[in-house]
Amino acid sequence: MRRYGKNPDEDDVRVRPNRKGNRPRTNIRPKHEDAAEGLVLTVDRGRLTCLIEGRTVTAMKARELGRKSAVVGDRVAVVGDLSGAKDTLARIVRVEPRTSTLRRTADDDDPFERVVVANADQLAIVTALADPEPRPRLIDRCLVAAYDAGLEPLLVLTKSDLASADALLESYGTLGVPAIVTNRDELTDGSAAEQVREALKGRMTAFVGHSGVGKTTLVNALVPERRRATGNVNAVTGRGRHTTTSALALPLPGDAGWVIDTPGVRSFGLAHIDPSRVIHAFPDLEPGTVDCPRACSHDEQDCALDQWVADGHADPARLHSLRRLLSTRERREGD
Ligand SMILES: Nc1nc2c(ncn2[C@@H]2O[C@H](COP(=O)(O)OP(=O)(O)OP(=O)(O)O)[C@@H](O)[C@H]2O)c(=O)[nH]1
Ligand SMILES: [Zn+2]
User: Fold this and answer.
1) Which cofactor does it need (predicted)?
2) Is 199 helix (H, G, I), strand (E, B) or coil?
3) 67, 118, 269, 274: which could form a disulfide with 106 (CB 3.0–4.6 Å)?
4) 55-69: per-residue pLDDT in tens?
5) Any idea which ligand is nearest the CA of 299?
């Protein structure tokens, strides 16, 4: 059983039992039946930009939401002034249950668990092949976060004009992570952007990457309107690009899915990860865990997976990869 301490975001995935057992919670069913449905595009100091029927509306959390947060990707119910006119402020009265929750924890400069993005179904891990050098442990950590959250990973290897992708492709081949190799020229002449768009079709994809890997170049190639938006002041949010701290959801042209750009990360904290969820991403190994000790880390002496692999049920390289991923949960210098 996972425990999250006092994280107020957790009541969206579990319905709390009614302790007293006699009084049904009257506010479980929405009282705001006239509320409009919105999608949170970005969050800036308590102001949430929501897309409501094609308009962007600025809103804040209604008091009744309490400490519960709404994050980029959340589906929300909004009341009040929905005109989207300047200086209007609507209220978010409900956050709909999430299909997924991408989190990270315990950065050097951020000790709290954060929900990065809600409702994404894919995580694009953007890594430059050089300048900056690839950081396999960071990639592994992002993969673990994706598997834990139930997102499908996609590796986007940029700056292929500078270095070969062979070593990384081989290393992640065992994990079965799909990969796309690109560079700026291929992105601007169209062909690579098409290939990436194909992988994003119909999905909500969160893009993460270390600062400087070319994520902006990539996102601009995918979402041409973004280029205008990031010039000086973002057309969607009205704020300058250098103050970007929140993720930003951008629609792909032609209703072809969503890109959620996230600020460059230096690390990806994993304190919240549950190995039993990560192992769902390894259906070839998962059945071998039935004989594991309780709360097995799958990286300990009594782990049943060694025997499972020794008996020929799965490829030893897969177990090796799983353990490599799980071991990244322990923090090391440079994470
Ligand atoms: N050689 C080469 N350089 C690239 C490529 N793509 C981007 N760059 C350069 O790499 C640098 C970083 O690119 P950005 O797209 O701003 O990267 P970013 O990941 O958004 O970086 P932050 O804004 O710091 O988060 C810029 O100087 C780009 O011109 C590429 O394919 N090849
Ligand atoms: Zn085990």
Assistant:
1) Zn(2+)
2) helix
3) 269
4) 999 999 999 898 888
5) 2
For residue 242, with 0-12 CB atoms within 10 Å meaning exposed, 13-18 middle and 19 or more buried, which class applies?
exposed
Q: Which atom of ligand 1 is nearest to the CA of 186?
A: 31
Domain contains 159? yes
Is-contact 117 102, C-beta < 8 A?
Answer: yes
Q: Measuring from atom 14 of ligand 1, which residue has the nearest CA?
A: 214
ipTM: 0.96
Residue 199 tokens read as: 């992988």
* Cα(263)–Cα(126) distance, integer angstroms: 12
Q: 214 and 299: one domain?
A: no
Domain, as residue range, for 143: 112-261
Distance 47 CA to ligand 1 centre (A): 29
What distance in angstroms lies between residue 292's CA and the mean position of ligand 2's atoms? 5
In a domain, 227, yes or no: yes
Is residue 226 a part of any domain in this protein? yes
